[in-house]
Amino acid sequence: MFDDDRSGLPVHELVGRLDAADPVALLICTVHLTGDLELLRPRWRPELVIGVPEGGYTAEVRAEILRACRAALERVGDGWERRRPGYDMMRRIVEWAMGPSYAAYVPLLTDGLCFRPEDDPGRPRWHRSAVAAGRELRVAVIGAGASGLLLAHRLRQAGVAVTVLERRQDVGGTWYANDYPGCRVDLESQVYRFSGYPGRWTDHYSTQPAVLDYLRAFAKDNGLYEDIRFGSEVLSSRWDTARAQWVLQVRTADGVHEVLADVQVSAVGQLSRPRLPRVPGLGTFSGPFFHSAEWGHSVDLAG
Ligand SMILES: Cc1cc2nc3c(=O)[nH]c(=O)nc-3n(C[C@H](O)[C@H](O)[C@H](O)COP(=O)(O)OP(=O)(O)OC[C@H]3O[C@@H](n4cnc5c(N)ncnc54)[C@H](O)[C@@H]3O)c2cc1C
Predict the structure, then answer these.
(1) Which CATH superfamily is domain 128-266 in?
(2) Taking the model in full, what pTM does it have?
């Protein structure tokens, strides 16, 4: 709720809009803002089942929840602090909403939340200068999709030199390649952002251009473009014992070159090579056909 541009909404304005709120999300946000764990009452435990909207509350219970949240928010006024909930608060919320079996997800869920630019729970807790000050270390990351970008960013934060090799001409991976009409995420947009880099989502289920913009902005704001070699396809790699380094064969527009690295990490994705199904007769079909990951934008599908 507060992990976007509306994070500055004054509480009196928020309170004026409560009637439209999902009572489960509202309760959880109110607990987070006010720190009032008493709101997690057994009577208000939601029924979180697909097909049961808004916690499955009766109208009477819903009204009760709205009243309690309004009162709690008015008590705290605009004095709430934008801070991440601690593990303990998250555990209480998660166990109340989903049951004790979900307690194992608390660190993951908590670390995924960030409300201020300085919130970056995934930042490495070590730095190369502290663990191997005099040693040069270069990591080759293959692929500049979501995985490669995050890995490169975390390594840079730890003071490790990175070269990202990407065969395409921009970042984004599958979110760069798949631009078919209507392409969007099938999990909530919130799940699609890195901890430490808030998303500015306008849709609950973001479109492909929005996800790609987010990944590009992440790369730009964190200076990753300077470490990425585009148009560079890794053909093979081998460990060179004499040099104690990986030797990667990389094809670019100018030919095949060697790139050396102390460590190599594959972030090539599992969906980055489109494969057409073997449809009998495809070889003799004379009309246009294409994979959704290589959409034929010039083909007029009207009619
Ligand atoms: C339409 C669509 C919807 C999706 N929805 C979801 C969703 O809702 N939730 C979810 O979790 N996942 C979803 N996915 C899966 C998605 O693939 C992942 O979420 C994620 O984007 C994968 O990122 P990645 O960096 O691991 O791989 P990729 O995005 O595939 O990136 C790999 C990169 O490696 C590069 N590469 C590959 N081989 C080489 C090589 N030899 N040399 C140099 N570069 C190379 C590729 O060009 C690519 O840029 C969806 C995918 C699509 C296409």
Answers:
(1) FAD/NAD(P)-binding domain (3.50.50.60)
(2) 0.84
